[in-house]
Amino acid sequence: MDVRKTKEKIIEAGKKAVDQLIKVAREEIKNEEGGDLSADRLKNAAATKKLAVFDAFEILERIEREQDMLDSVDKGPSRTETKEGFAERRAK
User: Fold this and answer.
1) pLDDT of 78 over the 70 cut
2) d(Cα 36, Cα 29) in Å, to the nearest integer?
3) CB atoms within 10 A of CB 75
4) Any idea what the Cα angle at residue 66 is, between residues 50 and 16, rounded to 5°?
5) What are phi and psi of 90, to 5 degrees?
6) Does 62 score more than 80 pLDDT?
7) What gap in Å lies between CA 46 and CA 29, rounded to an integer?
């Protein structure tokens, strides 16, 4: 199996996971009975939303890093990524 294709599939799955986490974060905190939520239940619901937001940002950050690595492989090494110094690069 091609590693690049696998990474691209993982990136796509990560994007879908972020969309699901956004839905969780946007969902209204409500009580099925229609009354007010107890402080404890409200706190747990808010903590769940906070975790969903933080997880989404963490996934996005990792997606960006992996995408950058895949893109840099396509471009090849940049001039500054070589072991040569400034003078050696300029002498060519």
Assistant:
1) no
2) 10
3) 7
4) 50
5) -75, -25
6) yes
7) 8
Pair of tokens at residue 41: 């239940």
CB 38 within 8 A of CB 3: no
CA–CA distance, 15 with 68 (Å, rounded to integer) = 15
Tokens, residue 49: 């939303």
- Measured CA to CA, the distance from residue 86 to residue 78 in angstroms comes to 13
Q: Which segments of 76-85 does DSSP mark as H helices, in order?
A: none
Instruction: Report the distance separating Cα 10 and Cα 3, nearest Å.
Output: 10
Q: Provide the residue count of the chain.
A: 92
Asked if 53 and 25 count as a contact pair (C-beta separation under 8 A), the reply is yes
- Given a cut of 70, whether residue 24 has pLDDT beyond it is yes
Alpha-carbon span 76 to 90, nearest angstrom: 19
Q: Where are the domains of the chain?
A: 3-91
| pTM for this model (two decimals) | 0.70
